[in-house]
Design goal:
The chain has 8 helices and 7 strands, in the order E-H-E-H-E-H-E-H-E-H-E-H-H-H-E. It has 252 residues and is of the alpha/beta class. It has a single domain, classed as 3-Layer(aba) Sandwich (Rossmann fold), CATH 3.40.50. It has a 7-stranded parallel sheet, sandwiched between helices. Helix 1 links the parallel strand 1 and strand 2. Helix 1 packs across helix 8. The longest helix is centred in the middle third of the chain and has 29 residues. The protein is globular, with a radius of gyration of 17 Å. The model has no long low-confidence stretch (mean pLDDT 94).
Length: 252
Protein backbone atom coordinates (compact mmCIF):
# COMPACT_ATOMS: atom_id res chain seq x y z
CA UNK A 1 0.00 0.00 0.00
CA UNK A 2 1.18 3.50 -0.82
CA UNK A 3 0.51 5.49 2.35
CA UNK A 4 0.50 8.95 0.77
CA UNK A 5 -2.95 10.57 1.14
CA UNK A 6 -4.16 7.67 3.28
CA UNK A 7 -5.86 8.06 6.69
CA UNK A 8 -4.79 6.18 9.82
CA UNK A 9 -5.94 5.74 13.40
CA UNK A 10 -3.20 4.90 15.89
CA UNK A 11 -4.27 3.90 19.38
CA UNK A 12 -1.81 4.84 22.10
CA UNK A 13 -0.43 7.26 19.54
CA UNK A 14 1.16 9.87 21.78
CA UNK A 15 4.18 8.00 23.07
CA UNK A 16 6.59 5.18 22.27
CA UNK A 17 5.85 2.99 19.27
CA UNK A 18 2.59 4.82 18.58
CA UNK A 19 4.34 8.16 18.36
CA UNK A 20 7.17 6.80 16.20
CA UNK A 21 4.66 5.17 13.84
CA UNK A 22 2.60 8.35 13.57
CA UNK A 23 5.66 10.40 12.64
CA UNK A 24 6.80 7.88 10.05
CA UNK A 25 3.34 7.72 8.45
CA UNK A 26 3.02 11.50 8.47
CA UNK A 27 6.44 11.88 6.85
CA UNK A 28 5.11 9.82 3.94
CA UNK A 29 1.93 11.87 3.54
CA UNK A 30 -0.52 9.88 5.68
CA UNK A 31 -2.92 11.80 7.92
CA UNK A 32 -3.28 10.46 11.45
CA UNK A 33 -5.78 10.46 14.31
CA UNK A 34 -3.82 9.80 17.50
CA UNK A 35 -5.73 8.18 20.32
CA UNK A 36 -4.56 8.62 23.88
CA UNK A 37 -5.96 7.71 27.27
CA UNK A 38 -3.90 9.76 29.75
CA UNK A 39 -0.90 11.16 27.86
CA UNK A 40 -2.64 14.30 26.57
CA UNK A 41 0.43 16.54 26.45
CA UNK A 42 2.52 13.97 24.59
CA UNK A 43 -0.30 13.20 22.14
CA UNK A 44 -0.89 16.88 21.37
CA UNK A 45 2.84 17.40 20.84
CA UNK A 46 2.99 14.40 18.50
CA UNK A 47 0.01 15.70 16.53
CA UNK A 48 1.69 19.08 16.14
CA UNK A 49 4.88 17.43 14.87
CA UNK A 50 2.85 15.45 12.34
CA UNK A 51 1.13 18.62 11.13
CA UNK A 52 4.51 20.20 10.49
CA UNK A 53 5.09 17.36 8.02
CA UNK A 54 2.16 18.61 5.95
CA UNK A 55 -0.71 16.29 6.94
CA UNK A 56 -3.85 16.51 9.03
CA UNK A 57 -3.27 15.21 12.52
CA UNK A 58 -5.32 15.29 15.68
CA UNK A 59 -5.10 13.94 19.22
CA UNK A 60 -8.28 12.30 20.51
CA UNK A 61 -8.87 11.06 24.04
CA UNK A 62 -10.50 7.65 24.30
CA UNK A 63 -10.38 4.56 26.47
CA UNK A 64 -10.43 1.67 24.02
CA UNK A 65 -11.74 -0.68 26.70
CA UNK A 66 -14.95 1.38 26.38
CA UNK A 67 -16.84 0.49 23.20
CA UNK A 68 -18.49 3.91 22.93
CA UNK A 69 -15.05 5.53 22.91
CA UNK A 70 -13.95 3.25 20.07
CA UNK A 71 -17.01 4.22 18.05
CA UNK A 72 -16.31 7.90 18.73
CA UNK A 73 -12.76 7.54 17.37
CA UNK A 74 -14.03 6.08 14.13
CA UNK A 75 -16.82 8.67 13.91
CA UNK A 76 -14.26 11.49 14.12
CA UNK A 77 -12.39 10.11 11.10
CA UNK A 78 -15.67 9.64 9.22
CA UNK A 79 -16.64 13.25 9.93
CA UNK A 80 -13.29 14.59 8.80
CA UNK A 81 -12.49 12.39 5.80
CA UNK A 82 -15.20 9.81 5.28
CA UNK A 83 -12.66 7.02 4.99
CA UNK A 84 -10.08 5.00 6.92
CA UNK A 85 -7.25 3.00 5.38
CA UNK A 86 -4.99 2.02 8.30
CA UNK A 87 -5.63 1.02 11.91
CA UNK A 88 -2.67 0.47 14.22
CA UNK A 89 -3.84 -1.20 17.44
CA UNK A 90 -0.98 -0.09 19.65
CA UNK A 91 -2.62 0.84 22.97
CA UNK A 92 -1.76 -1.50 25.81
CA UNK A 93 -1.31 -1.76 29.55
CA UNK A 94 0.24 -4.04 32.13
CA UNK A 95 1.11 -4.49 35.78
CA UNK A 96 4.54 -5.65 36.88
CA UNK A 97 4.15 -8.84 38.91
CA UNK A 98 6.72 -11.69 38.96
CA UNK A 99 5.28 -14.78 37.29
CA UNK A 100 6.00 -16.84 40.40
CA UNK A 101 3.72 -14.59 42.47
CA UNK A 102 0.39 -16.17 41.58
CA UNK A 103 -1.38 -14.11 44.20
CA UNK A 104 -0.03 -10.83 42.90
CA UNK A 105 -2.68 -10.26 40.24
CA UNK A 106 -6.18 -9.45 41.44
CA UNK A 107 -9.36 -10.10 39.49
CA UNK A 108 -9.42 -6.38 38.80
CA UNK A 109 -5.89 -6.51 37.38
CA UNK A 110 -6.88 -9.25 34.97
CA UNK A 111 -10.02 -7.36 33.96
CA UNK A 112 -8.05 -4.19 33.27
CA UNK A 113 -5.20 -5.81 31.31
CA UNK A 114 -7.46 -8.00 29.20
CA UNK A 115 -9.99 -5.18 28.87
CA UNK A 116 -7.45 -2.91 27.18
CA UNK A 117 -5.10 -5.33 25.44
CA UNK A 118 -7.61 -7.85 24.11
CA UNK A 119 -11.19 -6.62 24.36
CA UNK A 120 -10.18 -3.06 23.52
CA UNK A 121 -8.20 -4.21 20.49
CA UNK A 122 -11.18 -6.25 19.31
CA UNK A 123 -13.66 -3.44 19.94
CA UNK A 124 -11.50 -0.94 18.07
CA UNK A 125 -11.24 -3.23 15.06
CA UNK A 126 -14.96 -3.99 15.13
CA UNK A 127 -15.81 -0.29 15.34
CA UNK A 128 -13.67 0.36 12.25
CA UNK A 129 -14.77 -2.70 10.25
CA UNK A 130 -17.23 -1.05 7.87
CA UNK A 131 -15.12 1.98 7.04
CA UNK A 132 -12.01 -0.17 6.59
CA UNK A 133 -13.86 -2.54 4.26
CA UNK A 134 -15.10 0.45 2.28
CA UNK A 135 -11.48 1.42 1.61
CA UNK A 136 -11.14 -1.81 -0.37
CA UNK A 137 -7.43 -2.03 0.42
CA UNK A 138 -6.99 -1.50 4.15
CA UNK A 139 -4.51 -2.64 6.76
CA UNK A 140 -4.78 -3.43 10.48
CA UNK A 141 -1.53 -3.85 12.40
CA UNK A 142 -1.61 -5.19 15.95
CA UNK A 143 1.26 -4.33 18.29
CA UNK A 144 1.61 -7.55 20.25
CA UNK A 145 4.74 -8.74 22.09
CA UNK A 146 7.33 -11.48 22.36
CA UNK A 147 5.49 -12.14 25.63
CA UNK A 148 2.64 -13.58 23.57
CA UNK A 149 5.01 -16.24 22.23
CA UNK A 150 7.21 -16.94 25.25
CA UNK A 151 6.49 -16.87 29.00
CA UNK A 152 8.50 -13.70 29.64
CA UNK A 153 7.40 -10.18 30.44
CA UNK A 154 5.83 -8.01 33.07
CA UNK A 155 3.17 -10.45 34.29
CA UNK A 156 1.30 -13.64 33.47
CA UNK A 157 -1.76 -11.56 32.61
CA UNK A 158 0.23 -9.51 30.11
CA UNK A 159 1.60 -12.65 28.45
CA UNK A 160 -1.88 -14.14 28.21
CA UNK A 161 -3.27 -10.92 26.75
CA UNK A 162 -0.65 -10.78 24.01
CA UNK A 163 -1.11 -14.45 23.15
CA UNK A 164 -4.79 -13.62 22.74
CA UNK A 165 -3.91 -10.69 20.46
CA UNK A 166 -1.94 -13.08 18.25
CA UNK A 167 -4.92 -15.41 18.04
CA UNK A 168 -7.22 -12.47 17.36
CA UNK A 169 -4.94 -11.35 14.54
CA UNK A 170 -5.24 -14.65 12.72
CA UNK A 171 -8.99 -14.91 13.24
CA UNK A 172 -9.67 -11.36 12.09
CA UNK A 173 -7.42 -11.81 9.06
CA UNK A 174 -9.87 -14.45 7.83
CA UNK A 175 -13.00 -12.55 8.84
CA UNK A 176 -12.03 -9.22 7.29
CA UNK A 177 -10.52 -10.56 4.06
CA UNK A 178 -10.28 -9.74 1.22
CA UNK A 179 -10.73 -5.99 1.73
CA UNK A 180 -8.66 -5.76 4.92
CA UNK A 181 -5.35 -7.37 5.83
CA UNK A 182 -4.54 -8.03 9.50
CA UNK A 183 -1.04 -8.70 10.82
CA UNK A 184 0.78 -8.43 14.14
CA UNK A 185 4.20 -7.20 15.23
CA UNK A 186 5.72 -8.91 18.28
CA UNK A 187 8.50 -6.67 19.62
CA UNK A 188 11.05 -7.86 22.12
CA UNK A 189 12.54 -5.41 24.61
CA UNK A 190 11.95 -1.77 23.59
CA UNK A 191 13.83 1.08 25.20
CA UNK A 192 11.88 4.06 26.51
CA UNK A 193 9.30 5.13 29.06
CA UNK A 194 7.40 1.84 29.21
CA UNK A 195 10.49 -0.15 30.20
CA UNK A 196 11.74 2.60 32.52
CA UNK A 197 8.46 2.29 34.39
CA UNK A 198 8.77 -1.47 34.68
CA UNK A 199 12.51 -1.76 35.34
CA UNK A 200 12.99 1.20 37.67
CA UNK A 201 16.56 1.53 38.86
CA UNK A 202 17.52 -1.60 36.92
CA UNK A 203 16.67 -0.07 33.54
CA UNK A 204 20.21 0.53 32.25
CA UNK A 205 21.39 -2.85 33.53
CA UNK A 206 18.48 -4.53 31.75
CA UNK A 207 19.33 -2.79 28.48
CA UNK A 208 22.90 -4.05 28.68
CA UNK A 209 21.70 -7.58 29.44
CA UNK A 210 19.46 -7.47 26.36
CA UNK A 211 22.32 -6.24 24.18
CA UNK A 212 24.65 -8.94 25.49
CA UNK A 213 22.13 -11.75 24.91
CA UNK A 214 20.72 -10.68 21.54
CA UNK A 215 22.38 -11.83 18.28
CA UNK A 216 22.12 -8.37 16.70
CA UNK A 217 23.67 -6.84 19.83
CA UNK A 218 21.05 -4.10 19.99
CA UNK A 219 18.06 -3.14 22.10
CA UNK A 220 15.24 -1.90 19.90
CA UNK A 221 13.89 1.62 20.23
CA UNK A 222 10.35 2.68 19.20
CA UNK A 223 11.51 3.75 15.74
CA UNK A 224 12.78 0.22 15.05
CA UNK A 225 9.30 -1.16 15.69
CA UNK A 226 7.69 1.62 13.67
CA UNK A 227 9.96 0.59 10.79
CA UNK A 228 8.45 -2.89 10.99
CA UNK A 229 4.92 -1.51 11.07
CA UNK A 230 5.59 0.55 7.96
CA UNK A 231 7.22 -2.47 6.37
CA UNK A 232 4.00 -4.43 6.74
CA UNK A 233 1.78 -1.57 5.56
CA UNK A 234 3.92 -0.69 2.54
CA UNK A 235 4.94 -4.25 1.74
CA UNK A 236 3.25 -7.07 -0.10
CA UNK A 237 -0.52 -6.99 -0.27
CA UNK A 238 -0.36 -10.80 -0.02
CA UNK A 239 0.65 -10.58 3.64
CA UNK A 240 -2.13 -11.29 6.13
CA UNK A 241 -2.64 -13.31 9.30
CA UNK A 242 1.07 -13.15 10.10
CA UNK A 243 2.76 -12.80 13.50
CA UNK A 244 6.10 -11.07 12.92
CA UNK A 245 8.70 -11.26 15.68
CA UNK A 246 10.87 -8.12 15.76
CA UNK A 247 13.40 -8.73 18.52
CA UNK A 248 16.92 -8.65 17.09
CA UNK A 249 17.05 -12.42 17.43
CA UNK A 250 16.28 -12.43 21.17
CA UNK A 251 13.88 -15.35 20.76
CA UNK A 252 16.61 -17.63 19.39
Amino acid sequence: MKVSEKIAIITGGGTGVGRATALQLAAKGCSVLLNYSRSSREAEETAEECKKLGVWAEAFQADISNEEDCLALVKRVEEKYGKLDILVNNAGTTKVVPHSNLGGLSHGDWDHILGVNVIGTFQMTRAAEKILRASGNAEVVMISSISGLRPIGSSIAYCASKAAVNSLTQTLSKVLAPQVRVNAICPGFITGRWQKMMQGDGYEQTIQAVIDSTPLQKAADPADIADAVLGIIEGSDMLTGQILLVDGGQNI
